[in-house]
Design brief:
647 residues; mainly beta; Immunoglobulin-like; 34-stranded parallel sheet; 1 helix
Amino acid sequence: MTTNQRQVPAQKTGLKRRKIIIAAASSILVLTVALLFVFNVGNIRKSFAGTSKRTVTTIKDGNWSDASTWSGGNAPNNYSSDSIVILNNINYNVDYTVGDKSTTGIYIAKGATLSNNGHTLTLEKSASLVNAGTLNIKSLNFNGNGASDPTFSITNSGTFTDRSSLLSTNYNAVINNSGTMSISGDTKIDGKFTNSGTYTTAGNFDSDYGKIVNSGTISATGSSTFTGAYLNNSSYASQYSIGTTIALNYGSNNNSVSYIINSGKMTVGSSGTTGSVTINDGYITNGSIYHAKNGPSFTIYGALNINTGSHNDTNTITNNGLFAVTQSVTAYPVSTIVDNDSFTVGLNFASTTWLVVNKMAYLGVGNDLTNNTGTHAGITNNGGYIWVGDNFTNNWSAIYTGNGGGISIGSTFINHSSMTGTTDVCDRTPNHTGDVNGTMASQVTTCSYVPPIKGPSSLPVELTSFEAKAEGSSVQLDWATASEINNDRFEIERSDDGSSFSMIGTVKGNGTTMSKQTYSFSDVHPLSGIAYYRLHQVDFNGKFENSKIVVVHASETPQNILEVNVYPNPVKAGETLHVGLNVPVSEVLNLQLTTLNGANIYQNESQIDAGNHVKDITLPGGLKNGTYLLQATYRGEKTTRKVQVMQ
């Protein structure tokens, strides 16, 4: 065997060994990459895509995914450090995630649009979204939404539409809205939210440990649950309305109860939807100073429940404005209500709380007020006025302390305990048997109480204006109220003598409200001559009040008077005289043709419908030349026309 022949097997052996080593190395590399993808696929995508840092700007209208839409001819990289500027109208035809960098984000300029309700935009932990134009997407999602994650931010001064829910559970997140934001689902904000624009959500509006400051308008069709959260409805013009319920709960993460401070208008429920407010652990402050009926209002179209706090806190409502509950209030021990202005309850108030009515303040209860016994419970009247529609019961061992002021009772005063201090207790229905009993009987006066204080109206309905005026063939009635308690309806009454009235229609009231309400009614068949009108206001419990009387004269309703025209005029004897009539209201009409001396030539009386008509009168052939009188009597009024007859 030659030397070359011996080298060939050796070369083959070496080549075989190298192939085995390469194959093994390749297998290890494949396995390593596979394991990395299995355990860290998201970080790999971001580390590869995030190597570039650039600003990408749209240069024309188009699709997000089209390279020609963007400066440099490249669309933004998903999960990248790109800062994206939208200057045009862009069809958002992809799902995109803004990378986790404090310098990354999306800016939509004023007049620009990013819109497609079929795709989702996601913000990583530190990314930001600034919209000054129009943003309309399927959903805005957040990665890194935990309590300790870095801050992401949203700033909206344009129009923002999210076709899903906005769920921001990052405690460090910051959302600022001075434009319009519309959410089709629920909203949950656990960070900071400042709103000076308009924010609407079609579901719930909740917050765990969040801080919400509203100087604009926030509305939700669902409920609000606050857990260790803070809501400040901060300005006189701010509005916060919830469709169903508000619940204030304790937050274990921040060891805090929930707070609501209202300086504007808050509404829970509506006149057509029953709502409620439940305080499990929390405080409500309505207004900061006494506002004399022109300040903050907190209206609950439903019930108010104040429970015993679970963390040794005294659940408290402090009212410095207008606080209205259309149904009942139930307050349990270790809670406090302090009324410095006007607090009204449509139905019953069962109090096992400490209730304080301060000087010049008003507490109105549509049905029964019951003062029960309990820890930290009782009523203190510091010169305020308490109006009770039906019964006031001071139960056994209950505490009532009077420092001036008064109580006006509609039905029965039942006192099972002692009442200390001075209070003017007045019974508005002195003829009822057993109206007053207990130890206070000798101190109770029978009167129609007028509080010697300035403050909210003591009447169930405070009528601020009532006017009636002629408009065309009808009479228009308009009135307004500043506040209402337990108001079921207005019955509109009319009279022809100012003494005997009859009902001609009804208008539904607004129950219990501290907001101004306006009403109108049109009398389409008014009386001729002088007519008198008044409002007969009726509560849900049947009690009523009559308004002042307003007067309208027939001379103020010219279109309610019959219009009469005669032709031809002059007319020949033996021919037909046509009488044109414009009749405003169906009624009996009497037509009479006479001489100047009153001698009768023609007379007819019949029912005539509203509208235009022509009555024909055939004149006698021997009628002498001269002037005759045609009189039309309609609704008690006579209209006369001269008729010239000639041969």
